[in-house]
Amino acid sequence: MSGGAGERRSGPVERCRSCGGARLETVLDLGSTPLANALPADPSTAEPTYPLAVAICRECTLVQTTYWVSGELIFGGDYPYYSSYSTDYLRHARDHALELIERRALGPGSLVVEIASNDGYLLRNFAERGVPVLGIDPARGPAEKAREIGVPTLEEYFGADLARRLRAEGRRADVVLGNNVLAHVDDPNQLAAGVAILLEPGGVAVFEVPYLVDLVERCAFDTIYHEHNCYFSLRALQNLFGRHGLRVIDVRRLEVHGGSLRLSVGWGGEERPAVAELRSLEDRLGVANPDFYQEFARRVASVTRDLRDLLARSRERGERVAAYGAAAKGATLANAAGIGPDLVAYVVDRNPAKQGRFLPGVRIPIVPPERLREDPPDLLLVFAWNLLPEIRAQLGDFAGRWLVPIPEPRIL
Ligand code: ZN
């Protein structure tokens, strides 16, 4: 999901995406890397690389990438990400839908709109229970899949223009959902403005975003890639929505995606105590202060160095190493640490759309999980460390050792 109508071309970010301030201070630089989700089918083609660094805005505290890669480049080609591939995540989505239906008393007269609805994995839970839904997602393949399962989907970018059009058609939302979309947009104000136009006076918008504090505390720098433009603290989110007359009325920390916030935004009403509690935690940690990120950058450097050393020692001992999960995380980690097929023979992934391709940059071949039985490694590097319990359950008979890279490399 990206920036909306009138999207700008790729290039350096000169001004804060949220407040427009010019005081952006770089806090972590991962060099120049290929797009983490553009998996080449031919290992001999050289893919373009783009600077990958994050900066903090000294005005509104939003942490963000310093280079914008346009959605054309990211979504124009074939985009292999379909949400419906992690069973834990599907359960998480269903639980959230059921909770909203009950708490908001949603029924046939309601409307639930989801921004970046992907293949309809979340909205189908409402549709199946008779609650009208509308998905919005510019990615063609997933949008088609969504329509196939009964989730009407507009193949468009969400922003103020689309929200105005829907409202002119008499459509306003009781619930707006946006999971893992706020971090992806180039202009979060477009999204917040659109929500303000579309949301009923008594409605609620619920967003899930990877949480900046979890990213730093878990040293999850592998969740930094070009499609993730913003890394939100609660403080930065309050600044963003406040600009559009909306308020954060509730917040909850979640384990998904390595640590996320679920944020409820509305026009007013009572603010739950969790909001002030989290805000004061952030103040104690110093999320507005660049020092908080300098220590993080030092830890990132030591994780990449230690991981490469550990893999090089394995190779010297004649051990065979494979990896699990060809997600963007794996691409960021492998490129940042310089891990290629000489250190990791192959990476398995359950998603057939990724199989037969290669991790970008480092060119590790992506193969089906059956390969782990046919050609068993001594060590399995878990790129998708956030799904570790699920992966271990799936691969119950795996006889080798597990290597978890984050927050520091460790063998299980
Ligand atoms: Zn700012």
Ranges with pLDDT <50 over ≥5 residues? Answer: 1-6
* Overall number of domains: 2
In CATH, the topology of the largest domain is named Rossmann fold
Tell me the CATH superfamily of the largest domain.
Answer: Vaccinia Virus protein VP39
Main beta sheet strand tally, sense and closure? 7 strands, mixed
> What is the top-level CATH class of the largest domain?
Alpha Beta
Structure at a glance:
This protein has 412 residues and is an alpha/beta fold. Helices cover 32% and strands 22% of the residues. The two termini are 36 Å apart.
Describe the fold and architecture.
- The protein is built from 13 helices and 19 strands.
- The protein has 412 residues and is of the alpha/beta class.
- It folds into two domains: 83-288, 3-Layer(aba) Sandwich (Rossmann fold); 310-411, Rossmann fold, CATH 3.40.50.720.
- A seven-stranded mixed β-sheet has the order 8-7-6-9-10-13-12. It has a six-stranded mixed β-sheet with strand order 16-15-14-17-18-19. It has a four-stranded antiparallel β-sheet with strand order 2-3-4-11, covered by helices on one side.
- Helix 5 packs parallel to helix 6.
- 48% of the residues are buried.
- The model is unreliable at 1-6 (pLDDT under 50).
- The structure holds zinc ion.
- Zinc ion is lined by residues 16, 18-19, 21, 57, 59-60, 62.
